[in-house]
Amino acid sequence: MDAEALKALVRQIAKEKELDVQLIKKAIEDAILAASRKVLSQYKEARAELDVDTGLLHLWVKKTVVQEVTNPRTMISLRDARKIRKDVQVGDEIEVDEDPKVLGHIAAQNMRQILAQKIQDAEREKICAEWNARVGEVVNGTVQRIERDGSLIISLGKVEAILPKREMPPTAKYQQNERIKVLVTRVDPNARGPMVIVSRTSPELVAKLFEQEVPEIADGTVRIVKIARDPGVRTKIAVESTSKEIDAVGACVGLKGSRVQMIVRELDNEKIDVVPYSPKLEEFVAKALVPAEIASVRVIPEERKAIVIVKEQNLSLAIGKRGQNARLAAKLTGLTLDIHAEGEQQKLAHVDRDEIERRYLADLLSQKDVMDEGILDQLAERGIRSVADLTVADPHMLSEIFSSDVDWAQELVDDAKNYLEQLEDLRKTTFSDEES
After folding, report:
1. Predicted TM-score of the model (pTM)
2. What are the DSSP calls for 304-325, one per residue?
3. How does pLDDT run across 25-77, given as a tens digit for each residue?
4. Would you state the torsion angle of the CA atoms of residues 243, 244, 250, 254, taken in this order, to the nearest 10 degrees?
5. Residue 155 to residues 136, 140, 174, 399: CA-CA distances in angstroms?
6. How far is CA 19 from CA 32, 57, 119, 191, 264, in A?
7. How far is the C-alpha of 171 from the C-alpha of 200, rounded, in Å?
8. How much is the CA Rg of the chain, to the nearest whole Å?
9. Cα gap 133→129, rounded to integer Å
10. How many CB atoms lie within 10 A of CB 49?
């Protein structure tokens, strides 16, 4: 490759790849040496040097100064050596500018392949350095494609990132070309594909979205104390104000909920509870269990536990579906929560357990549009007196009782299992911040 062509190549690569000219110069020099290793092994301490301004390539090798040359690749005559350096003596070593043509055409072809790899490595190093500095940032991206394993390739402009399936809320569904915000979590320089790893499940994503949307958080007037998140479903965020004139919750929610709703929409309608932080744990626990109304809270500091009494008709609200509200509140406060309804003990003393189980069974059947009380008696005759009994019932037997097909009967058994899970969550009263 002549000087002008080499000079043009350097400029072209620098422009297209947005890489420093000196970096490309070094890559070309290294590539030449690597591609010419067999030829250069016959020389001593060979090094390439490219002048990026002229495009001239120099190949420097060391030679020993001798009176009589027997190996021109490792030796130079005293007369020729003194043309380079006047004070040289026999036995000295001198660096000589060898004609690059000695490398041959094969080396030149190999150099292109090696150079392409070195430029790719340089690009990855640049990306790695740039995006390592952006870990923890929220960036806008576009869904470029969906991989077989369910992960997404996200375009971040000139860089691609990967959103692993485990970093997506379980309920999320994204379409190609959809624009989403993601949190940069780390950079993997050894990854075969995109090195930038992003997340949509991290609690830090919620924090950064609030920081973008709420000026009071950005300027430090309002502080995020802690976040507890069930990605795609619900988040609880505790905030406090550093100024008596600013209402932390009001600032985060915004006029008519405008600020928090922007974040809710970005997170695919994930519910967000903005909770005022209080150093008084009793107050903090009561607020953390929103939307339930709390009658009283008693904290046992040495056990990191709080006994919570909720007002009548609020137990299910406090616990939430599958215990979600209570678990998030426990995580937010860092306490184990033991939750009970007002007057619970007195009521339980007068409860007819069999009748309660029959009512639960009737409630489940009503959801399947079965209202006939006689069915309950028929089920009882077959030993099915509760929802739990129904979960292990034979679908063929049930199809006879309900005059239905076996598929419908199997669906009833499956529904009973789901109903029982929700019922057990409702009966559960103790929730720890360590629970997932």
Report:
1. 0.68
2. TEEEEEEPTT-HHHHH-GGGHH
3. 887 778 777 777 777 777 788 888 888 788 788 888 889 999 988 888 889 99
4. -50
5. 17, 9, 14, 53
6. 19, 20, 9, 21, 40
7. 12
8. 36
9. 7
10. 13
